[in-house]
Amino acid sequence: xxKIYLKGMEFYGYHGVFSEENxxxxxxxxxxxxxxxxxxAAKDDDLEKSVNYxxxxxxxxxxxxxxxxxxxxxxxxxxxxxxxxxxxIVYEATVFVKKPTPPIAGHYEYxxxxxxxxxx
Length: 120
Fold this sequence. Notes:
By secondary structure, the chain is of the alpha+beta class. It has a single domain, classed as GTP Cyclohydrolase I, domain 2 (2-Layer Sandwich). Helix content is 33%, strand content 34%. It contains 4 helices and 4 strands; from the N terminus they run E-H-E-H-H-H-E-E. It has a 4-stranded antiparallel β-sheet. Helix 3 packs antiparallel against helix 4. The longest helix has 15 residues. The chain starts with a strand and ends with a strand. It catalyses: 7,8-dihydroneopterin = 6-hydroxymethyl-7,8-dihydropterin + glycolaldehyde. It comes from Alteribacillus persepolensis. Pathway: Cofactor biosynthesis; tetrahydrofolate biosynthesis; 2-amino-4-hydroxy-6-hydroxymethyl-7,8-dihydropteridine diphosphate from 7,8-dihydroneopterin triphosphate: step 3/4.
């Protein structure tokens, strides 16, 4: 199957189990991979038969910036649910949410969650 990628989308959100995370917020980076049959879109050169990248970006932005969750797992699950409910052409979504500045002592690039969800 074919894939559509949106990589390195950056948002500011208020997710975390610590109260300061919900108050101060922090950056989140999201990678989204959508599996779909893109042959009809390519054959007819028709955006209506594909996924508009701008619409997918806005869907992810809404999930990250307009909600507050304790778990990054819930952020990822919400993104996958919105993508599958919004874009009928997408049959599987993989969402990788990175939290580069969690309040954890130590040296690391980020912590993150990756989930894959598909239509039943």
